[in-house]
């Protein structure tokens, strides 16, 4: 039961990351102007680079997100 709840939480958080708009949401916090190639260096650019790379990864893996959503929906239907 705990694993199902954890899976649901991961899928919901990933859904939130996948729908973030770069121009409207990420630009407010300066995440749209991060140099992706310099993410390995130290400082605030390093942290921003890691966060932006993570967000871009979540947005680019939409097929896995769709599959995860379907799995969560099926688990909820079958456990009801």
From TrEMBL:
Keywords carried by this UniProt record: Membrane, Protein transport, Transmembrane, Transmembrane helix, Transport
Main location as per UniProt: membrane
Bilayer-crossing regions: 63-79
Classification via InterPro entries: Yos1 (IPR013880)
Localization: Membrane
Keyword Ion transport part of the UniProt annotation: no
A Pfam family matched in the record: Yos1
Domain of life according to the entry: Eukaryota
GO aspect biological process, one term: endoplasmic reticulum to Golgi vesicle-mediated transport
One GO cellular component term: endoplasmic reticulum membrane
Record flagged with keyword Transferase: no
Family note: Belongs to the YOS1 family.
Protein name (Swiss-Prot/TrEMBL): Immediate early response 3-interacting protein 1
């Amino acid at each position: 039961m705990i694993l199902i709840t954890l899976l649901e939480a991961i899928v919901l958080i990933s859904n939130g990351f996948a729908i973030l708009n770069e121009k409207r949401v990420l630009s407010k916090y300066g995440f749209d102007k991060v140099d992706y190639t310099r993410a390995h260096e130290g400082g605030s650019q390093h942290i921003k680079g890691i966060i932006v790379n993570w967000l871009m990864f979540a947005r680019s893996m939409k097929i896995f997100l769709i599959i995860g959503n379907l799995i969560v929906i099926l688990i909820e239907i079958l456990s009801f």
